[in-house]
Amino acid sequence: MIQETVGSAKAPGAARGGRLPKINPVFFVLAALLVAITLSNPNFVEPTGYMNFLKRAAPLAILAAGQIYVIVSGGFDLSVGSVITLTVVGSSVLLNNNADATWWVIPVMYAVGLAVGVVNGLVVSYLRVPSLIATLGMMITLNGAAFMWSSGSPRGYLPETFRFFGRTNIQGIPLIQFLPVALLVLIVVGLCLFWLMHRTNLGRLLHAIGDNPRAAQMSGVPLERVRIIAFVISSLSAVTAGILLGGFAGVSTDVGVGYELQAITACVIGGAQLLGGRGSVPASIAGALTLTAIFTLLNFIGLPKPVRDVVQGVILIVAVVLATYRRNRAGGT
Known about the structure:
ABC transporter involved in vitamin B12 uptake, BtuC, ABC_transp_permease, transmembrane
């Protein structure tokens, strides 16, 4: 019945009446920013420039690609930044300077991420706690757990076997000279999440729940199960981002600070509707690249980090206002 009721609906953004499909404006914004970066720093067009840019953007892009599942279903996941921190700190403690332990430590961290996602989904779905509050509580809990686990300061180090995914570049690639492993991880994760969102019934169910939960439930959509899956995907994406960030910078107790809001901002830049029912994986990844491009451009101009925070806050506020306006306008027509 679910397949017939929800699956028969057209996918969001599909062409109607033979018209060409609309191109998300985020891609034009990203292109303009890349041109601006190139004008500010001509070396950006060299393989070292744009490949390092993509390498830096990969963790946020993966995080946004997972966050969009929760946003489309009508919620938020503020716990992803703390999941990143717990992944890095927990891995360093479990590895205990033993490179041979990498093969089992990474699956353990994914199991932790799975548990976090399930708990978030259960609290939101069955206890009816707003996702903003539930995941904020989880964020505080995980940050406290990471602090206690590390005794307040990073211990040990992450061996090269662990840092391989975020740090290693495959050399000798024609034309581009090298290919970051982090970019390969982004491509694989992005394709998997694209397929789940846009080529399976899960994506249609998520959009149905975010657009009108009551109507979706009356149509036979299993709201609780779908929402739990969305939070699990978001948490597992955060673990992946944490593994990449651990490869970049090593062990730090604040490695994930601020990433939850950056992921939400990236999704909003990509056109996601914060009240649910609208969003796509490619646009969210493009939003993450756009946000990274904004930060890169501000850095080239010489503006300090506080300015980046102000810009991110303004983008988020404006996007929320526009999303609310569009939804109210659509409801009035």
